[in-house]
Specification:
This protein is α+β, with helices and mostly antiparallel strands and 99 residues long. The chain has one domain: Alpha-Beta Plaits (2-Layer Sandwich). It is 26% helix and 41% strand. A 4-stranded antiparallel β-sheet has the order 4-9-1-10, covered by helices on one side. Strands 2-3 form a two-stranded antiparallel ribbon. It has a two-stranded antiparallel sheet with strand order 5-6. Strand 2 and strand 3 form a beta hairpin. Helix 1 runs antiparallel to helix 2.
Length: 99
Amino acid sequence: MYQVIIRIKKNDSVKGKRIHKLILDVLKEGKISGATVWTGVSGYGKRGKSDVQIEGITINMPMVIEVVDELSKLEKILPKIKEFVDDNGLVTIHEVGML
């Protein structure tokens, strides 16, 4: 089994639609068994800091999408995910053990 980790910002979008929603659509269409979307409190990367505080509300937080499935299924959807993420984030893939 392999894990794909996608790091983006919450407000990232392509053609007016949030990247995380586009990615989830691709995962469902690819019959990936499941995904988890996490929002972070703060972070930084090559595009700078990933949080903005407005009266206690944080916007444009870092976001991580985690997926675990068979390599053959993941390889089919990775080009489309990389197209959405482009230089706005980071996509990594790791072999994982299952208990």
